[in-house]
Amino acid sequence: MSSNCRIISVVNQKGGVGKTTTTVNLATAMAAVGKRVLVVDADPQGNASTGFGVVRANRGIGCYELMFDGLLVEDVAVPTIIPNLSVITSSADLAGAEIQLVTTERREFRMKDALDRSAKDYDIILIDCPPSLNLITLNALIASHAILIPLQPEFYALEGVSSLLQTMEAVRERFNPTLEVQGVVLTMYDKRNSLSDAVAADVRSYFGDKVYETVIPRNVRVSEAPSHGKPVLLYDLKCSGSRAYMQLASEVLKREWGAFESLENTDLPKAVGE
Ligand SMILES: Nc1ncnc2c1ncn2[C@@H]1O[C@H](COP(=O)(O)OP(=O)(O)O)[C@@H](O)[C@H]1O
Ligand SMILES: [Mg+2]
Questions:
Q1: Residue 165 CA to chain centroid, in angstroms?
Q2: Taking residues 155-173, what's their average pLDDT?
Q3: Are 247 and 216 in contact (CB under 8 A)?
Q4: pLDDT band at residue 272 using 50, 70 and 90 as cut-offs
Q5: Distance, CA of 248 to CA of 186 (rounded, Å)
Q6: With pLDDT > 90 as the criterion, what percentage of the chain qualifies?
Q7: What percent of the chain has pLDDT over 70?
Q8: Are 90 and 64 in contact (CB under 8 A)?
Q9: CB of 8 within 8 A of CB of 140?
Q10: Residue of the nearest CA to atom 17 in ligand 1?
Protein backbone atom coordinates (compact mmCIF):
# COMPACT_ATOMS: atom_id res chain seq x y z
CA MET A 1 0.00 0.00 0.00
CA SER A 2 1.29 3.45 -0.86
CA SER A 3 2.14 5.31 2.33
CA ASN A 4 0.04 8.28 1.26
CA CYS A 5 -3.02 6.16 0.68
CA ARG A 6 -5.97 7.20 2.83
CA ILE A 7 -8.60 4.67 3.81
CA ILE A 8 -12.07 5.88 4.73
CA SER A 9 -14.98 3.72 5.86
CA VAL A 10 -18.46 4.93 5.01
CA VAL A 11 -20.37 3.69 8.01
CA ASN A 12 -23.73 3.84 9.77
CA GLN A 13 -25.36 0.70 11.12
CA LYS A 14 -28.72 1.91 9.86
CA GLY A 15 -29.69 0.71 6.43
CA GLY A 16 -30.96 3.04 3.76
CA VAL A 17 -29.20 6.20 4.93
CA GLY A 18 -27.12 6.69 1.78
CA LYS A 19 -23.85 4.86 2.56
CA THR A 20 -23.61 3.13 -0.78
CA THR A 21 -24.79 6.12 -2.80
CA THR A 22 -22.23 8.30 -1.04
CA THR A 23 -19.41 5.80 -1.53
CA VAL A 24 -20.13 5.34 -5.23
CA ASN A 25 -20.44 9.02 -6.06
CA LEU A 26 -17.61 10.31 -3.89
CA ALA A 27 -15.37 7.70 -5.48
CA THR A 28 -16.45 8.76 -8.95
CA ALA A 29 -15.89 12.46 -8.30
CA MET A 30 -12.44 11.81 -6.85
CA ALA A 31 -11.44 9.60 -9.76
CA ALA A 32 -12.60 12.33 -12.13
CA VAL A 33 -10.03 14.71 -10.68
CA GLY A 34 -7.29 12.15 -11.12
CA LYS A 35 -7.15 10.43 -7.75
CA ARG A 36 -6.51 6.70 -7.96
CA VAL A 37 -9.51 5.28 -6.18
CA LEU A 38 -10.46 1.85 -4.89
CA VAL A 39 -13.90 1.01 -3.54
CA VAL A 40 -14.25 -2.01 -1.28
CA ASP A 41 -17.81 -3.33 -1.30
CA ALA A 42 -17.98 -4.85 2.18
CA ASP A 43 -21.76 -5.30 2.21
CA PRO A 44 -22.95 -8.80 1.21
CA GLN A 45 -25.87 -7.12 -0.55
CA GLY A 46 -23.38 -5.90 -3.14
CA ASN A 47 -25.12 -2.63 -3.90
CA ALA A 48 -21.90 -0.72 -4.56
CA SER A 49 -20.84 -3.37 -7.08
CA THR A 50 -24.23 -3.01 -8.77
CA GLY A 51 -23.97 0.79 -8.64
CA PHE A 52 -20.78 0.62 -10.72
CA GLY A 53 -22.39 -1.72 -13.19
CA VAL A 54 -20.24 -4.73 -12.30
CA VAL A 55 -22.39 -7.64 -13.45
CA ARG A 56 -22.74 -10.68 -11.19
CA ALA A 57 -20.66 -12.81 -13.58
CA ASN A 58 -17.69 -10.56 -12.80
CA ARG A 59 -18.04 -10.94 -9.05
CA GLY A 60 -16.45 -14.36 -8.80
CA ILE A 61 -13.77 -13.22 -6.42
CA GLY A 62 -13.92 -10.16 -4.24
CA CYS A 63 -13.97 -8.97 -0.67
CA TYR A 64 -14.47 -12.44 0.76
CA GLU A 65 -11.44 -13.88 -1.04
CA LEU A 66 -9.40 -10.83 -0.09
CA MET A 67 -10.15 -11.40 3.59
CA PHE A 68 -9.98 -15.21 3.71
CA ASP A 69 -7.91 -16.56 0.86
CA GLY A 70 -4.84 -14.39 1.22
CA LEU A 71 -5.30 -12.84 -2.20
CA LEU A 72 -3.88 -9.43 -3.05
CA VAL A 73 -5.88 -6.33 -3.91
CA GLU A 74 -4.60 -6.56 -7.46
CA ASP A 75 -5.93 -10.13 -7.70
CA VAL A 76 -9.45 -9.21 -6.71
CA ALA A 77 -10.01 -5.58 -7.80
CA VAL A 78 -11.89 -5.14 -11.06
CA PRO A 79 -11.84 -2.00 -13.20
CA THR A 80 -15.04 0.02 -13.59
CA ILE A 81 -16.19 2.10 -16.54
CA ILE A 82 -14.52 5.02 -14.77
CA PRO A 83 -10.78 5.48 -15.35
CA ASN A 84 -8.73 5.46 -12.10
CA LEU A 85 -11.52 3.64 -10.26
CA SER A 86 -11.51 -0.03 -9.33
CA VAL A 87 -13.85 -1.97 -7.09
CA ILE A 88 -13.47 -5.04 -4.92
CA THR A 89 -16.89 -6.58 -5.25
CA SER A 90 -18.88 -8.39 -2.66
CA SER A 91 -20.59 -11.70 -3.26
CA ALA A 92 -23.08 -13.86 -1.44
CA ASP A 93 -20.13 -15.61 0.25
CA LEU A 94 -19.49 -12.50 2.25
CA ALA A 95 -22.76 -13.10 4.09
CA GLY A 96 -21.18 -16.18 5.67
CA ALA A 97 -18.00 -14.30 6.52
CA GLU A 98 -19.46 -12.90 9.69
CA ILE A 99 -19.77 -16.37 11.21
CA GLN A 100 -16.55 -17.62 9.71
CA LEU A 101 -14.62 -14.67 11.12
CA VAL A 102 -15.43 -15.69 14.69
CA THR A 103 -13.07 -18.65 14.49
CA THR A 104 -10.50 -17.11 12.15
CA GLU A 105 -7.03 -16.11 13.24
CA ARG A 106 -6.54 -12.32 13.56
CA ARG A 107 -10.25 -12.04 12.91
CA GLU A 108 -10.38 -8.28 13.48
CA PHE A 109 -7.45 -7.60 11.17
CA ARG A 110 -8.31 -9.57 8.04
CA MET A 111 -9.12 -6.48 6.00
CA LYS A 112 -6.28 -4.38 7.36
CA ASP A 113 -3.75 -7.15 6.71
CA ALA A 114 -5.11 -7.58 3.19
CA LEU A 115 -4.91 -3.88 2.35
CA ASP A 116 -1.46 -3.58 3.95
CA ARG A 117 0.02 -6.43 1.92
CA SER A 118 -1.18 -4.90 -1.31
CA ALA A 119 1.45 -3.41 -3.53
CA LYS A 120 -1.04 -1.57 -5.68
CA ASP A 121 -0.95 2.18 -5.36
CA TYR A 122 -4.14 4.05 -4.59
CA ASP A 123 -4.62 7.57 -3.30
CA ILE A 124 -7.84 6.72 -1.56
CA ILE A 125 -9.75 3.59 -0.59
CA LEU A 126 -13.43 3.90 0.33
CA ILE A 127 -15.04 0.99 2.18
CA ASP A 128 -18.81 0.67 1.84
CA CYS A 129 -19.86 -0.94 5.13
CA PRO A 130 -22.84 -3.22 5.78
CA PRO A 131 -25.78 -1.87 7.83
CA SER A 132 -24.58 -3.42 11.07
CA LEU A 133 -21.84 -3.05 13.65
CA ASN A 134 -20.65 -6.58 12.98
CA LEU A 135 -17.21 -8.12 12.55
CA ILE A 136 -16.99 -7.02 8.92
CA THR A 137 -17.62 -3.42 9.96
CA LEU A 138 -15.09 -3.84 12.76
CA ASN A 139 -12.55 -5.05 10.18
CA ALA A 140 -13.28 -1.96 8.07
CA LEU A 141 -12.88 0.42 11.03
CA ILE A 142 -9.58 -1.17 12.02
CA ALA A 143 -8.30 -0.92 8.46
CA SER A 144 -9.29 2.76 8.14
CA HIS A 145 -7.73 6.12 8.86
CA ALA A 146 -11.11 7.78 9.17
CA ILE A 147 -14.85 7.26 8.98
CA LEU A 148 -17.46 9.17 7.06
CA ILE A 149 -20.98 8.99 8.50
CA PRO A 150 -24.02 9.56 6.27
CA LEU A 151 -27.09 10.63 8.24
CA GLN A 152 -30.59 10.95 6.90
CA PRO A 153 -32.34 13.83 8.70
CA GLU A 154 -35.29 11.95 10.09
CA PHE A 155 -36.62 11.79 13.59
CA TYR A 156 -34.41 8.91 14.70
CA ALA A 157 -31.26 10.09 12.91
CA LEU A 158 -29.17 10.54 16.01
CA GLU A 159 -30.44 7.39 17.64
CA GLY A 160 -27.82 4.76 17.01
CA VAL A 161 -25.12 7.32 16.40
CA SER A 162 -24.05 7.01 20.03
CA SER A 163 -23.50 3.26 19.63
CA LEU A 164 -21.54 3.94 16.45
CA LEU A 165 -19.35 6.45 18.29
CA GLN A 166 -18.94 4.01 21.20
CA THR A 167 -17.81 1.36 18.78
CA MET A 168 -15.38 3.80 17.24
CA GLU A 169 -14.01 4.66 20.70
CA ALA A 170 -13.54 0.98 21.50
CA VAL A 171 -11.71 0.51 18.20
CA ARG A 172 -9.46 3.47 19.02
CA GLU A 173 -8.66 2.10 22.47
CA ARG A 174 -7.97 -1.46 21.46
CA PHE A 175 -6.89 -1.57 17.84
CA ASN A 176 -6.53 1.67 15.92
CA PRO A 177 -5.73 4.72 18.09
CA THR A 178 -5.59 7.20 15.23
CA LEU A 179 -9.03 6.47 13.75
CA GLU A 180 -10.87 9.76 13.29
CA VAL A 181 -14.15 11.13 11.99
CA GLN A 182 -13.59 12.59 8.51
CA GLY A 183 -17.05 14.04 8.55
CA VAL A 184 -20.79 13.66 8.78
CA VAL A 185 -22.95 14.19 5.71
CA LEU A 186 -26.67 14.87 5.71
CA THR A 187 -28.26 12.83 2.95
CA MET A 188 -31.67 12.71 1.26
CA TYR A 189 -32.39 16.16 2.57
CA ASP A 190 -35.92 17.28 1.83
CA LYS A 191 -36.18 21.04 2.06
CA ARG A 192 -39.97 20.94 2.00
CA ASN A 193 -39.96 18.95 5.19
CA SER A 194 -39.49 21.14 8.27
CA LEU A 195 -38.30 18.11 10.20
CA SER A 196 -35.22 17.97 7.95
CA ASP A 197 -34.20 21.43 9.15
CA ALA A 198 -34.83 20.64 12.79
CA VAL A 199 -32.86 17.40 12.68
CA ALA A 200 -30.06 19.02 10.66
CA ALA A 201 -29.74 21.68 13.37
CA ASP A 202 -29.52 18.95 16.01
CA VAL A 203 -26.89 17.08 14.04
CA ARG A 204 -24.85 20.27 13.60
CA SER A 205 -24.98 21.09 17.29
CA TYR A 206 -23.98 17.51 18.16
CA PHE A 207 -21.11 17.12 15.67
CA GLY A 208 -20.13 20.77 15.21
CA ASP A 209 -17.84 21.43 12.27
CA LYS A 210 -17.48 17.72 11.57
CA VAL A 211 -20.69 18.12 9.57
CA TYR A 212 -19.93 18.99 5.95
CA GLU A 213 -21.43 22.20 4.65
CA THR A 214 -22.68 20.27 1.65
CA VAL A 215 -26.06 18.65 2.12
CA ILE A 216 -27.20 15.95 -0.32
CA PRO A 217 -30.76 16.69 -1.45
CA ARG A 218 -33.36 14.04 -2.05
CA ASN A 219 -33.31 13.73 -5.82
CA VAL A 220 -35.05 11.10 -7.92
CA ARG A 221 -32.15 10.98 -10.41
CA VAL A 222 -29.92 9.71 -7.58
CA SER A 223 -32.26 6.79 -6.94
CA GLU A 224 -32.65 5.97 -10.65
CA ALA A 225 -28.93 5.80 -11.42
CA PRO A 226 -28.12 2.39 -9.85
CA SER A 227 -30.66 0.60 -12.04
CA HIS A 228 -28.61 1.85 -15.02
CA GLY A 229 -25.41 0.53 -13.43
CA LYS A 230 -24.01 4.04 -13.23
CA PRO A 231 -23.08 6.54 -10.55
CA VAL A 232 -25.50 9.49 -10.75
CA LEU A 233 -22.53 11.63 -11.77
CA LEU A 234 -22.52 9.73 -15.06
CA TYR A 235 -26.24 9.23 -15.32
CA ASP A 236 -27.15 12.91 -15.01
CA LEU A 237 -24.26 15.23 -14.26
CA LYS A 238 -26.42 18.34 -14.05
CA CYS A 239 -28.99 17.15 -11.51
CA SER A 240 -28.97 18.52 -7.98
CA GLY A 241 -27.73 15.22 -6.54
CA SER A 242 -24.70 15.13 -8.82
CA ARG A 243 -23.80 18.71 -8.08
CA ALA A 244 -24.05 18.04 -4.35
CA TYR A 245 -21.78 15.00 -4.57
CA MET A 246 -19.18 16.99 -6.53
CA GLN A 247 -19.23 19.61 -3.80
CA LEU A 248 -18.98 16.99 -1.07
CA ALA A 249 -15.97 15.46 -2.82
CA SER A 250 -14.28 18.88 -2.77
CA GLU A 251 -14.85 19.10 0.97
CA VAL A 252 -13.56 15.61 1.64
CA LEU A 253 -10.46 16.21 -0.49
CA LYS A 254 -9.85 19.48 1.30
CA ARG A 255 -10.03 17.80 4.70
CA GLU A 256 -7.75 14.96 3.60
CA TRP A 257 -5.17 16.86 1.60
CA GLY A 258 -5.56 20.48 2.63
CA ALA A 259 -5.57 22.07 -0.77
CA PHE A 260 -9.03 22.96 -1.91
CA GLU A 261 -9.72 21.23 -5.15
CA SER A 262 -12.73 22.71 -6.80
CA LEU A 263 -14.52 20.18 -8.92
CA GLU A 264 -16.82 22.79 -10.38
CA ASN A 265 -15.02 23.06 -13.68
CA THR A 266 -14.06 19.44 -14.09
CA ASP A 267 -15.14 18.07 -17.40
CA LEU A 268 -16.51 14.96 -15.79
CA PRO A 269 -17.93 13.19 -18.85
CA LYS A 270 -14.57 13.64 -20.55
CA ALA A 271 -12.68 12.56 -17.44
CA VAL A 272 -14.67 9.36 -17.25
CA GLY A 273 -14.49 8.71 -20.95
CA GLU A 274 -18.17 9.18 -21.75
N1 LIG B 1 -30.06 11.79 -2.42
C2 LIG B 1 -30.91 10.79 -2.68
N3 LIG B 1 -32.09 11.06 -3.29
C4 LIG B 1 -32.98 10.06 -3.57
N5 LIG B 1 -32.76 8.78 -3.27
C6 LIG B 1 -31.60 8.45 -2.67
C7 LIG B 1 -30.62 9.43 -2.33
N8 LIG B 1 -29.58 8.81 -1.74
C9 LIG B 1 -29.89 7.51 -1.70
N10 LIG B 1 -31.10 7.27 -2.25
C11 LIG B 1 -31.80 5.98 -2.38
O12 LIG B 1 -32.09 5.52 -1.07
C13 LIG B 1 -31.89 4.12 -0.96
C14 LIG B 1 -30.87 3.83 0.12
O15 LIG B 1 -29.62 4.40 -0.23
P16 LIG B 1 -28.26 3.59 -0.06
O17 LIG B 1 -27.17 4.46 -0.53
O18 LIG B 1 -28.39 2.25 -0.70
O19 LIG B 1 -28.22 3.44 1.53
P20 LIG B 1 -27.38 2.44 2.45
O21 LIG B 1 -26.17 2.02 1.69
O22 LIG B 1 -27.05 3.24 3.68
O23 LIG B 1 -28.28 1.29 2.77
C24 LIG B 1 -31.44 3.65 -2.34
O25 LIG B 1 -32.56 3.18 -3.04
C26 LIG B 1 -30.89 4.90 -2.97
O27 LIG B 1 -31.00 4.88 -4.38
MG1 LIG C 1 -25.50 0.07 1.24
A1: 17
A2: 90
A3: no
A4: low
A5: 10
A6: 74
A7: 92
A8: yes
A9: no
A10: 18
Q: What is the pTM (predicted TM-score) of this model?
A: 0.94
The number of residues in the chain equals: 274
What are 38's strand-pairing partners? 86, 125
Closest ligand to residue 16's CA: 1
* Test site for ligand 1: of 26, 187, 223, 245, most ligand atoms within 8 A of the Cβ: 223
Q: Which domains does the chain have, with CATH numbers?
A: 6-271 (3.40.50.300)
The count of other CB atoms within 10 Å of the CB of residue 217 is 17
> pLDDT tens digits for 110-128?
999 999 988 568 999 999 9
d(CA 27, CA 86): 9
**Cα(220) to centroid(ligand 1), Å:** 10
Please, which residues have CB within 8 angstroms of residue 17's CB and are 6 or more apart in sequence?
A: 150, 151, 152, 187, 188
CA of 196 to the centre of ligand 2 (A): 21
- Lowest mean pLDDT, pick from 16-30, 188-202, 251-265: 251-265
